[in-house]
Amino acid sequence: xxEMTTSSPVPLADExxxxxxxxxxxxxxxxxxxxxxxxxxxxxxxxxxxxxxxPLVLPTLTDxxxxxxxxxxxSSLHLAGALLIQAGRRHETRNLRAREAxxxxxxxxxxxxxxxxxxxxxxxxxxxxAILNLEGDIHWAQDLIWGVVSEEYELECPDPDGCTSVWVVxxxxxxxxxxxxxxxxxxxxxxxxxxxxxxxLEGLGHRLYELALADGQEEVARALTYAFxxxxxxxxxRRFSVIGQIISSCS
Length: 251
Prior knowledge:
By secondary structure, this protein is of the alpha+beta class. The protein has helices spanning 15-29, 34-46, 57-65, 70-88, 96-99, 101-115, 121-135, 141-150, 203-214, 218-227, 242-249; strands at 152-156, 165-171, 174-178, 191-192, 230-232, 239-241. The protein has a four-stranded antiparallel β-sheet with strand order 1-2-3-4. Strands 5-6 form a two-stranded antiparallel sheet. Helix 3 runs antiparallel to helix 4.
């Protein structure tokens, strides 16, 4: 990673914050400091104590994304994509994506290169999320991909009366919906999920499914058919679109 220096004063952060940010980015770039990444997520994304528009942030994350270390690249791309989506929702940073267009283009190119060779399932999923976030066309990629990674979604039944919360499980425990905390007991009522027919997938579902297959991520591709399929509410027995409720929960 190039030496992180600036030739002019930083107007959006005081000197202490700049030093803190520089130190965290340098530690993260080593690829061996998970706490640095945790702190960057906390201070840049979760509580905003460090400024996402600081001139060190996206250029340094871009350099790390183009690094030859897969873990470092995946981590930097995941964070950069999330920061851009969040920045677009805030008045003071809504122009960040346009202002940093060259960095965003480099980040997106790096994400697509890494996607084709990333073996780790979790990192691969986060790369898909990063690609969608870097493209910026949707704002619910994090919620979609989180369910694939964690193998579950917690959604609300779309019934106008707010029927119940529904767990949609896709993974080692099976493929089902339930109204109970399935992790606490095996004695629960479950309803099988109805995956989308891969041949009938359209739009984003088709695109992500085909990418996962092309990249040798068959488990991810299968999980996506459930994310774009239907579940049954255990209370009212209504079938509903899983992705439709994911989008609704982000509105």
